Amino acid sequence: MTIKIIGTGSAVPEQVVTNDDLAKIVDTNDEWIRTRTGIEERRIASAGSGTSHMATEAAKKALAQAGISAKDLDIIIFATSTPDCCFPSGACEVQAAIGADKAVAFDISAACSGFIFALHTVHSFFKAGIYQTGLVIGADTLSKIIDWQDRSTCVLFGDGAGAAVVRAEEHGTLHMTMGSDGSKASALACTARTTDSFLTGKKPELGYMTMDGQEVFKFAVKTVPEAIRTVLSEGGTHIDEIKYFVLHQANYRIFESIAKRLKISMEKFPTNLERFGNTSGATIPILLDEMNREGKLERGDKIVLAGFGAGLTWGATLLEW
Ligand code: COA
Known about the structure:
Peroxisomal Thiolase, Chain A, domain 1, 2 domains, alpha/beta, five-stranded mixed β-sheet, 321 residues, binds coenzyme A, four-stranded mixed β-sheet
């Protein structure tokens, strides 16, 4: 039993924030950001346009493209580390907004690997014969947990949402791998925001993202090629058979290093991070949606998705479009 993506959608905030805009609030410049990351601009959500709002827009577009009703969905899994509420889950908010009354809906937290983890979880339900039609969402509003005084992180991220409608299929390819290493959690972290209780007497704390950029860089360029090799080997697929490697959009230099290690041309690594930055759980489905709508993907194409992020977590999927 495998998975077929039958519709994709994405949504990003209207507000464009360029590298020059950021140079007005922190000591940075366009040249540094472009050369170190490949990012030129990003989208930042305004008040009232949070994670679930963007996710709902992306989900509606994915359903329209799939040509199915929200009422046909059995399961919605929403990957996010920046939900609008502690509860209800973002998945339940999307479920209500699109009217998917039959679907079970829940969130998972795997940071930038979230979409891959969510896709694999839906696949497992399909394989077990429990559900047949699902909606997988990756959406984040990282702008609300960024320290806008910290130039080493604030230039990297943006807000956005991507979604894919998936269906169980008897035939086709899907091989997957996932991993986690909680012992390296401090390399990329954001503590929860708390008001504490009347007993602790502590003041409210606003958790902000912190990152050891070089540690994350080293982790990504080691782990992602290994994960890609694993799914190719399990799928009995030669690397040359892969049309595209759809990677988590974090840094152009990470792509270059991975391409070099795998001895693959950069042409096989589509990117959109120059326009959106790192939108965490949303990067892979937003890019997939763009490629799909531009007609770059044809039925039968073999592609590899690969993500990595806080946790630390990582994962790769070999799938047939
Ligand atoms: N603008 C200008 N200078 C900056 C800067 C910015 N936005 N951010 C950091 N710097 C400075 C540093 O202070 C440092 O200055 P110093 O040499 O005077 O101390 C210098 O630039 C080099 O910093 P360094 O951290 O060594 O740069 P780097 O080459 O490692 O690039 C990252 C930094 C963050 C771009 C890079 O490490 C990276 O991309 N890591 C992966 C991060 C990632 O993808 N995270 C998300 C994963 S899901």
